[in-house]
Amino acid sequence: MIPQQRDEIVDFLRQLQHHICTALVKLDGEAAFRHDDWQHHSGGGGQTRVIEGGRVFERGAVNVSAVEGRLPKSVGGRGDNIGQNFFACGLSLVLHPQNPFVPAVHCNFRYFECFDEQGVRQDRWFGGGADLTPVYPELEDVQHFHRTLQRACDGVVPGSYQRFKAQCDEYFYLPHRQETRGVGGVFFDYLRDEPGHDWNTQATLWHACALGFLPAYLPIAERQVQREYGEQHKQWQLLRRGRYAEFNLAFDRGTRFGLETGGRTESILLSLPPQVVWAYNHQPAPGSAEARLAWFLQGRDWLGISEQEQ
Amino acid sequence: MIPQQRDEIVDFLRQLQHHICTALVKLDGEAAFRHDDWQHHSGGGGQTRVIEGGRVFERGAVNVSAVEGRLPKSVGGRGDNIGQNFFACGLSLVLHPQNPFVPAVHCNFRYFECFDEQGVRQDRWFGGGADLTPVYPELEDVQHFHRTLQRACDGVVPGSYQRFKAQCDEYFYLPHRQETRGVGGVFFDYLRDEPGHDWNTQATLWHACALGFLPAYLPIAERQVQREYGEQHKQWQLLRRGRYAEFNLAFDRGTRFGLETGGRTESILLSLPPQVVWAYNHQPAPGSAEARLAWFLQGRDWLGISEQEQ
To answer: How far is the alpha carbon of B245 from chain A, nearest alpha carbon, in Å?
Structure first.
């Protein structure tokens, strides 16, 4: 059943949280998730699940929340929503692996409702996305991640992957570094009931994308975690995590939305890496494995590219 | 001589950079500063000086820049400045010590000019400040830092310290943590030629404050660096540096101004700590040395407080 109404959507997100956590614990093989329930100051709450110090995951968080409040400016979109009461629910996930060969990954699937002062719903929409952040990328992995999401999206709305992929590259961009945060994936927002895309279609698209996350990521992690790494690889991962922290703190709208609406700080900032290094003016040696990363951070057309173009 | 005109101010900042770096190298006793000259894309440039891996300083930066460009929105202040051409010069310093007992410190002394389309100067002002960020604070140190700056400021304009101290606490505040970044100091902006405060007075106040930085900080570092520390102390320092990175990336207007005006990213982000740890929901044990820090992060009246009140 495709979740279309608020209660169905919240149920689906909770099931998805359970499903994802079960799969990640199985992959990790050592650590478990701790669960923290919390309440939001203006209504609702959530459950934060954190896995730390595992075989695979240095830290991972899979959070579900369903909260009510008033919209701050940072939500963006349509100006006439500002100051309206809202309902927002979502699942957000960030995984920071131990092994530098295993990419970090993020996904978020959310649903918003806006109300006027009389409590009449004025608007509702789906948003979300998934994106991959390797520090030693392999084209095969990047293509697997994108192809899986492409099949999920285009299977519901042909052409949607291409749009969402472009939006992902645009959103996860560090202007001061002139590079994308990682190798992208899909990103979308404001999926509304509108001419050409009825509510059922939008819900189906969102649902397919959310279910596409695990098959897009798991095979990559399973394969890469077998690789042995040294201190040099770890150091590169810690340096690159600096860029991740820069993006999340300085640019990410989700982080700002959470902090500005008085969300639970410890849950919101779980997206930050467990350990980070900032070095002054670090440049990887030309031709090194580390130097290869730059080629991957320019929002390329992964599904139409070959190894030779690298 | 009090620097009052653009060229005098730039000269003073360069001398101050030299003076501060000489004192810091002497204190460190092992490391030296490397110098990087750079050009700004829209005119001017600067010199970044970095000390790394020393006996005292894990990393420190003392930068001077003098650049021209067009004002972005983030400068704030008066709306009619937006889009105007500007000249900005400043010294900015951030020190991240190795020893967790030595406080991190930041200061910035800057001067702005705004021009209309015909190149006629419309406005000019001084700004700046200095603030201390200990992770194992001692009241005696905090009082020394504040008293030194108080004497510098009030010696020129009586009552200015109290205003600047309050502005510092307000500016260096992390709303999502409900705490100040450190124990404050002074912070001021838009010191203009205005009724009651002529340009000479403002320049003298700014100059006195800039010269107050070293005597405010050096004795603290010299004393605290003698203390022995262990892994637990270092870990607490790395955790607290997470808050420092949160402030600088998510809230600091100086960082935003630099990044939005196309400043040199590597110089701007030198304010970030060299190593950082983020832990989920970390709470120091009640009664521990780490737990004492919270009392110091509420913008207290340091010069009117006694040990007994802790």
So the answer is: 9
